[in-house]
């Protein structure tokens, strides 16, 4: 019957008029609007389908108590817009300065209604092509060798209209509530429907199932009016400041921890929810028991016939009856609309609520299907910020760049610089780049070395999970070695059981930089591109395979890695050791001397002085260099103390005399050069 229905659906689709687009995007939430912006800027044929009448429909309902936990920092003390995005967790990426979230709210934790208004303006001001009131209810494949990926995606909406596209971008988010079924679960209220009026809970005893931010948000709302609140979950509470994962419990919602630890009746318990059972007595009170007590029992016979845990253990923790039980277990991905032909399968273990995708955010089962936004968080679950706006705005841009290269032959954006700018380029990026900072250990800057290390090509924010595929995914070549720049926390600094406030938790000396705990830049050097096998066999908890050389820039309290001795000098020496060259910059006088005393000139002399682009040192610069110990004092004076008059070639001639080099007239030098 199923095969017959599937065949009929294919016939119906093939017989109907199909509206074609190169790219179909499901969902006009933050991720859907973000990828729509990039597609529109590139001039691509796309359409966004949104089931509601406006974008961001999830935020119209959630969080239920309307306060976001994404920070909106108004001031950073800096005017650099890229740096400021490090502390703006709500704005989407665009060229329009009006669409910065701080222009919509001054609250550090904004109201969700503001996010709805912001997303509406983002879609309208940028004139994104969103088709509202269109719920996609079925997605299947049509095999076709002429298609980009060997097949087309066929979409059907609630009105049985059909659409056809070459690439499918799923940005529908996570909106199906996680539900645990156990005896008596019909008495449980869901987070999505429970009252948000505290007065409805006055004088009541409440049990909350779950231990995430939605559970604590709900508890925070009713903390002052209830008799007491108990919270049950299978795992211990995880604090975001200890795990450095923004999806764990945030301080803004953790009031229940105070009342628990300060013995004000509220409490936290650990236990598997599937082992629980709820029994309702004649007064409407809810009693917690265990499933095995109900085996071979008839719940409908009444509570008097059921053994409760307190009948055997009189100090059982949850022996007091509850007035209400609330489920706050988060959300999962909606797999129901995808035909089996797409092989959209859930993950395993703690990521089973997400679809299976590759580190490139492409579905493991279907080429050309990419998952964006919150639903793509399986790539970095509990590691980075890919499940939140301030993270997936960058991974969405990365996916767009992969698509541009794959389907339109547009290589990954890059800039080429002389090797003398290598240190400065790295220092600039680690001090201001927001993508590296937010998506630490996931996105990386890649430096591809050119022949003889005379120049380099700089690629920004590439997904390191597909580093082995860099040449294919970016259209760039890595023939002469590469540097990979990422941000990392210390290996043993993050965890639910870690004390992140211990004494001497920070490292300040450059020689101990590898022991840095807080977020800091790490540079990996590879003589060749790592292989797929090396990526799979990398050490546990390492984001990358073992490199030929590695350098940690020591953590900084101000996250300002510009200290000449602590940050820049060790980095430059590391780069020089990897490249076997001198990356210092020299004045023209020094390059002139090197030309006569060394077989090989430093790159700054080759690319500057030898091309008549050297910086001639003025008396003021020379004096500063001498005072700093960078140059010898070649200034000569007569016996009266007056400085001898300079000739055009005075400094060069003096340098040569000091090193025993015969000085010949300038004309002879010119003739020698000509010869």
| Through-space gap between termini | 91 Å
Please report the number of helical segments. 20
- Looking at the structure, the CATH topology of the largest domain is FAD/NAD(P)-binding domain
Summed up, the domain count is 4
The whole-angstrom Rg is 32 Å
Extended strand count: 22
Mean pLDDT: 88
Structural class: alpha/beta
The first-level CATH class of the largest domain is given as: Alpha Beta
Oligomerization status of the protein chains: single chain
In which range does the helix fraction lie? 25-40%
Question: Could you name the CATH homologous superfamily of the largest domain?
Answer: FAD/NAD(P)-binding domain
What would CATH call the architecture of the largest domain?
Answer: 3-Layer(bba) Sandwich
Strand content: 15-25%
Characterization of this structure:
26% of the residues lie in helices and 17% in strands. By secondary structure, the protein is of the alpha/beta class. Helix 16 (588-597) packs across helix 19. The strands form five sheets. Strands 1, 2, 3, 4, 5, 6 and 16 form a seven-stranded mixed β-sheet that branches. It folds into four domains: 19-175 and 332-402, FAD/NAD(P)-binding domain (3-Layer(bba) Sandwich), CATH 3.50.50.60; 185-329, 3-Layer(bba) Sandwich (FAD/NAD(P)-binding domain); 414-579, no CATH class; 588-625, no CATH class. Residues 1-15 form the signal peptide. Interacts with SEL1L. May interact with OS9 and DNAJC10. Interacts with TXNDC16. One of its GO terms (biological process) is ERAD pathway. Its cofactor is FAD.
């Amino acid at each position: 019957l199923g095969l017959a229905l599937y065949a009929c659906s294919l016939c119906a689709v093939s017989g109907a008029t199909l509206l074609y687009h190169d790219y179909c995007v499901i969902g006009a939430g933050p991720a859907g609007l973000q990828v729509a912006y990039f597609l529109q800027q590139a001039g691509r044929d796309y359409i966004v389908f949104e089931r509601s009448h406006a974008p961001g429909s999830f935020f119209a309902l959630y969080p239920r108590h309307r306060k976001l936990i994404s920070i909106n920092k108004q001031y950073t003390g800096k005017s650099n817009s890229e740096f400021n995005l490090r502390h703006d967790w709500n704005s989407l990426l665009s060229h329009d300065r009006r669409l910065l979230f701080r222009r919509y709210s001054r609250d550090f934790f904004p109201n969700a209604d503001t996010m709805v208004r912001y997303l509406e303006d983002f879609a309208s001001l940028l004139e994104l092509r969103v088709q509202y009131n269109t719920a996609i209810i079925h997605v299947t494949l049509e095999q076709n060798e002429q298609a980009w990926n060997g097949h087309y995606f066929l979409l059907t909406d609630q009105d049985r209209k059909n659409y056809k596209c070459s690439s499918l971008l799923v940005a529908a988010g996570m909106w199906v509530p996680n539900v645990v079924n156990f005896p008596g679960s019909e008495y449980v209220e869901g987070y999505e429907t429970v009252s948000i009026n505290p007065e409805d809970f006055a004088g009541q005893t409440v049990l909350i199932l779950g231990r995430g931010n939605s559970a604590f948000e709900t508890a925070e709302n009713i903390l002052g009016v209830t008799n007491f609140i108990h919270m049950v979950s299978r795992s211990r509470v995880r604090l975001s400041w200890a795990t450095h994962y923004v999806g764990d419990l945030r301080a803004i919602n953790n009031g229940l921890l105070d009342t628990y630890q300060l013995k004000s009746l509220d409490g936290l318990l650990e236990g598997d929810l599937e082992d629980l059972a709820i029994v309702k007595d004649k007064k409407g009170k809810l009693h917690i028991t265990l499933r095995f007590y109900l085996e071979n029992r008839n719940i409908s016979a009444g509570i008097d016939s059921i053994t409760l845990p307190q009948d055997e253990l009189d100090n059982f923790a949850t022996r007091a009856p509850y007035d209400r039980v609330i489920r706050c277990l988060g959300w999962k991905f909606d797999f129901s609309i995808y035909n089996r032909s797409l092989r959209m399968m859930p993950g395993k273990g703690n990521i089973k609520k997400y679809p299976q995708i590759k580190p490139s955010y492409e579905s493991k089962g279907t080429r050309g299907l990419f998952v964006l936004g919150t639903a793509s968080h399986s790539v970095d679950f509990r590691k980075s910020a890919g499940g939140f706006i301030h993270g997936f705005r960058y991974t969405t841009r990365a996916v767009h760049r992969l698509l541009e290269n794959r389907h339109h032959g547009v290589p990954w954006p890059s800039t080429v610089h002389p090797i003398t700018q290598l240190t400065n380029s790295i220092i600039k990026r680690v001090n201001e780049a927001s993508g590296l900072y937010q998506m630490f250990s996931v996105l990386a800057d890649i430096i591809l070395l050119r022949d003889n290390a005379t120049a380099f090509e700089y690629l920004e924010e590439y997904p390191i999970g597909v580093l082995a595929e860099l040449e294919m995914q970016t259209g760039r070549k890595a023939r002469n070695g590469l540097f990979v720049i990422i941000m990392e926390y210390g290996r043993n600094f993050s965890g639910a059981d870690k004390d992140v406030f211990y004494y001497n938790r920070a490292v300040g000396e450059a020689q101990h930089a590898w022991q840095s705990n807080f977020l800091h830049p790490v540079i990996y050097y590879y003589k060749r591109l790592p292989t797929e096998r090396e990526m799979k066999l990398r050490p546990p908890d390492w984001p990358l395979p073992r490199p030929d050389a590695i350098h940690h820039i020591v953590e900084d309290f101000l996250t300002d890695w510009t200290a000449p001795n602590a940050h820049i000098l060790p980095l430059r020496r590391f780069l020089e050791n990897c490249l076997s060259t001198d990356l210092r910059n020299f004045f023209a006088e020094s390059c002139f001397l090197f030309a006569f005393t060394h077989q090989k000139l430093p790159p700054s002399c080759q690319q500057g002085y030898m091309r008549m682009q050297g910086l001639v040192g003025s008396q003021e610069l020379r004096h500063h260099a001498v005072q700093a110990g960078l140059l010898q004092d070649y200034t000569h004076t007569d016996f009266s103390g007056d400085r001898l008059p300079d000739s055009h070639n005075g400094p060069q001639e003096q340098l040569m005399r000091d090193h025993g080099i015969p000085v010949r007239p300038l004309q002879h030098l010119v003739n020698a050069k000509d010869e």
